[in-house]
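During the no-cost extension, the postdoctoral fellow (Dr. R.K.) reprocessed legacy sequence entries with the updated structure-token encoder. One reprocessed record is reproduced below for audit purposes.
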Amino acid sequence: MTMYMYPTYHYEDQAYLERQFPGIPGFPGIPGVPGFPGQPGQPNYSQAPTAPPPAFIPQQQASTFAVDPGAISFCLFRNTFIWLNNGASFWYYPIFVGPRSVAGFRWNGRFWTIFGIDTRQIRSFSCF
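Re-encoded structure tokens follow.
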């Protein structure tokens, strides 16, 4: 298990996300979903997880320091539990990490859905 903490920020960079992910609602930028075969430097949406995430919710651990947002790249293609600054938390399966955003699949309790988020909205995460 890997644990990372981020400083608290309370804003979103929608313009940045639209530049990074054009064409997907809420994730503007990648042409065509699902099953987009990917291009160099772009996520491959055909790599959605085929099984549900673990049945447990990990305990969030406190940390006295923040790490570079690129640290979540160690969780690529792994089940990852994310806690957001707004108090929300969920299982996530990241498949692409940009300079300030993460793209992947979010578990909604029944199935995986495409989801992207600005890394400044992430308070902490643990990957398994």
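Residues 5 and 124 are 4 Å apart (CA to CA). Helices lie at 14-20. The remaining legacy entries will be reprocessed before the final report is submitted.
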